[in-house]
Each structure stands twice: as C-alpha cells, then as structure tokens.
Amino acid sequence: MSSFSLFGTSLKNLFSKPATKMYPAKPFEPFEATRGHVSIDIEKCILCGLCHRSCPVGAITVVREDKSWSIDALRCITCNDCVSRCPVSCLTMEVQYMPIAIGESISTFVKPEPKEEPEVEAEAGSEEEAELEAETEVEAEAEPE
Ligand code: SF4
Ligand code: SF4
Fold first, then answer.
1. pTM here?
2. What is the mean pLDDT of residues 86-108?
3. Distance 65 CA to ligand 2 centre (A)
4. Cis link prior to 144 (omega < 30° from 0)?
5. Ligand 1 atom at shortest distance from the alpha carbon of 40
6. Which of 11, 40, 94, 114 has the fewest Cβ atoms nearer than 10 Å?
C-alpha cells in the first residue's frame, strides 16, 4: 500500500462512523439468526431428563434426586435440540448477553418446592367451631341462675 492510499484510508476513517458496536453505551442488538444461549424456566421443568439424554455434547445434567438442572455454557454448541424436544417448553434460546463467566461455566438451577395451598378444610372446621362456641354462649346466657 502506497503512503498516498494509506493517508487516504486514514482520512476516510477519521470522518466515518466506527465499525465496532458501541456496547455497552448502546444496547446490544442481536444479528439475524443469532442463536444465543439456552435458558430455562425451572418452575415449569418436570425433570424428565429428555434434554439431558438428547444433548449431543453432554452439556446438560439433570439430577432428579436434587431436583436440579445444570448446563455447561462452554460445552453447549447451541444446536437447539434440547429446546425443540422439551415436552413442557420450558427451554428457550435467549439472544441477550449472558453474565460474564468467571471460572465455572456450569450454571445450576434447582426446582423450587411447590407453594403450599391454604388449608380450606381446616378453616371451614374453625368456622364451625366458632359457630358452635357462639351457640353454647347463647344457651348459657339463656339458662336461669
Ligand atoms: S426436557 Fe424440559 S422438562 Fe425435561 S428435564 Fe429437560 S428442561 Fe426439564
Ligand atoms: S442447545 Fe444443543 S448442545 Fe446446547 S444444551 Fe441444548 S442440546 Fe446440548
């Protein structure tokens, strides 16, 4: 490259828009067909292990006893197989940036215990007891001394 064309390129670059993305100053916009990374809604997961068995690189581990689902982000090749096979559609491909991985690349999610339903029968029982108590009090007041 002659010094003249080098000077021309430098001058052009001085007044043109930067070729790089201005992240994080500007929000990240994924390219078309970006696959992203696997994300799970752990509350919906039924721990069937289908994703674990079908992953071609063994990136997913499901341990039913611990109610845990883990993924090794550095092993995953974003083939989308687990997402398409999940019977309850709790896996998705997220196109946003992942948090910076420092050291461990395995993320583990534990399925929370189901929320306890309010004890309707016990409440009904206590209402009945309250009514019975009120009736007893009225009867006691009505009795001559
Ligand atoms: S296939 Fe879906 S429901 Fe089954 S263990 Fe994997 S994430 Fe959970
Ligand atoms: S996207 Fe493919 S490689 Fe990644 S965890 Fe799912 S099945 Fe495995």
1. 0.68
2. 86
3. 22
4. no
5. 7
6. 114
Kindly report, residue by residue over 36-47, the tens digit of the pLDDT: 899 999 999 999
Q: Specify the amino acid at residue 44.
A: K
Task: Measure the CA–CA gap between 134 and 124, rounded to whole angstroms.
Answer: 15
Is residue 62 within 6 Å of ligand 1 at its C-beta? yes
Per-residue pLDDT band for 145 (boundaries 50, 70, 90) equals very low
Q: Which residues line ligand 2 (CB under 6 A)?
A: 38, 55-57, 59-60, 71, 76-82
Domains and CATH numbers, the chain: 42-111 (3.30.70.3270)
**Residue whose entry in the numeric block shows the structure tokens 């039913």:** 64
Handedness of CA 80, 84, 90, 93 (dihedral sign): positive
Measured in Å, residue 141 CA sits from the centre of ligand 2 at: 75
